[in-house]
């Protein structure tokens, strides 16, 4: 359990938003509004602009993402190697949690 | 093409963020907000989100710079400081006094905890977290010692919440007079009327590191 906690801590507070952003960028570089749209499509969650940019700044500070040069005001971001590594660790930890939860449900509960 | 009114609203929203953050992210953040405004012209949730995140960024900036309460007050533009504190006080008074019917002391606890969270706790814990030597401790302790006057003023914020509660509940002249007195005390605390003679701050964080 403690190992999983450490992995989640890699993304700090608001790990959920950070994971959504990293997962979106894993599919390719995107600017702010494209991130909001993509995350809405694959997760069903709408990230507010303030939340997005607070998380982007934090991820860039930790060098998990990096900005790309752009002539446009809309600056795109891409995942770094560190970002990909941390995202992989977090997703694996979540998959373990999901697997455990589903197995326990199968044993003790009838699901529709 | 963005309407001038929308541009003005976005510019106002960006003012909640510190200058260094605006310099780095301001343009692209404004571009995202423009697109968001074009989809949803009016959204209180968006305004609240942008404002609250701006305050978080400011609090993080100040916490990482290890500054005193005096510097916190100086770093926030006066109008934002007053507006923010009034909103907290009034919201606390309305929520706890009017709607829930909870006792008045909850107003005090709510306002105090929130105010402490945003402005105080991270900065006061910073030196204890990062102590390395006695010399460093003495350097870092100095701004904290100096900030005592500011800390004394913290109860003014929940006090305004209580007064809003009193005004809504009783609508008496006594309540109005009490609110006036508290408003003056509050203005003094935020440097509206009285300014700390030692203060030579221009809103930048550089003087904070002198210790």
Largest interface: A-B, 17 and 22 residues
Biggest beta sheet attributes of chain A: 2 strands, antiparallel
Beta percentage of chain A is: 5-15%
Largest sheet of chain B: none
The mean pLDDT of chain A is 87
Radius of gyration based on Cα positions of chain A: 16 Å
Give the low-confidence spans of chain B: 116-152, 191-211
Structural class of chain A: mainly alpha
How many alpha or pi helices of chain B?
Answer: 10
Radius of gyration of chain B over all CA atoms, rounded? 19 Å
User: What is the strand content of chain B?
Assistant: under 5%
Q: Could you give the order of the helices and strands of chain A?
A: HHHHEEH
- Gap between N and C termini of chain A: 29 Å
Q: Approximately how much helix is present in the residues of chain A?
A: 55-70%
Helix content of chain B: over 70%
Salient structural properties:
heterodimer; A: 112 residues; mainly alpha; two-stranded antiparallel sheet; 5 helices; 2 strands; disordered N terminus; B: 211 residues
Write the layout of secondary structure elements.
The complex is a heterodimer of chains A (112) and B (211).
Chain A: H1 2-9, H2 15-26, H3 32-43, H4 49-61, E1 65-67, E2 77-79, H5 81-108
Antiparallel strand pairs in A: 1-2
Helix pairs in contact in A: 2-3, 2-5
Chain B: H1 4-14, H2 19-39, H3 44-65, H4 69-75, H5 78-99, H6 104-129, H7 134-146, H8 148-152, H9 156-170, H10 173-189
Helix pairs in contact in B: 1-2, 3-6, 5-6, 5-9, 6-9, 9-10
Summarize the structure.
The complex is a heterodimer of chains A (112) and B (211). Chain A has helices at 2-9, 15-26, 32-43, 49-61, 81-108, and strands at residues 65-67, 77-79.
């Amino acid at each position: 359990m403690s190992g999983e906690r450490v992995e989640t801590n890699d993304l700090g507070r608001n790990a959920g938003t950070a994971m959504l952003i990293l997962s979106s960028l894993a599919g390719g570089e995107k600017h702010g509004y494209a991130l909001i749209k993509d995350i809405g499509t694959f997760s069903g969650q709408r990230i507010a602009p303030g939340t997005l940019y607070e998380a982007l700044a934090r991820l860039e500070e930790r060098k998990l993402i990096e900005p790309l040069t752009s002539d446009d005001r809309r600056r795109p971001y891409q995942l770094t190697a560190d970002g990909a590594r941390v995202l992989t660790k977090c997703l694996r930890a979540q998959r373990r949690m999901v697997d455990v939860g589903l197995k326990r449900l199968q044993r003790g509960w009838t699901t529709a | 093409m963005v309407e001038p009114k929308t541009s003005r609203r976005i510019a106002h929203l960006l003012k909640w963020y510190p200058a260094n953050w605006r310099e780095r992210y301001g343009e692209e953040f404004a571009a995202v907000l423009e697109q968001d405004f074009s989809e949803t012209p009016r959204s209180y949730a968006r305004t609240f989100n942008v404002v609250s995140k701006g305050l978080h960024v400011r609090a993080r900036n100040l916490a990482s710079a290890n500054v005193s309460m005096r510097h916190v007050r100086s770093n926030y533009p006066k109008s934002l400081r007053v507006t923010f504190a009034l909103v907290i006080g009034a919201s606390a008074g309305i929520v706890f006094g009017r709607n829930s019917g909870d006792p008045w002391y909850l107003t005090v606890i709510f306002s105090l905890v929130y105010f402490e969270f945003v402005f105080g706790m991270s900065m006061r814990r910073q030196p204890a977290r990062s102590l390395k030597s006695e010399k460093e401790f003495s350097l870092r302790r100095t701004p904290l010692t100096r900030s005592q006057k500011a800390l004394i003023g913290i109860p003014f914020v929940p006090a305004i919440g209580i007064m809003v509660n009193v005004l809504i509940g009783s609508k008496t002249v006594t309540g109005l007079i009490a609110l006036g007195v508290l408003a003056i005390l509050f203005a003094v605390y935020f440097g509206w009327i009285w300014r700390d003679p030692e203060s030579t701050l221009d809103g930048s964080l550089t003087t904070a590191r002198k210790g």
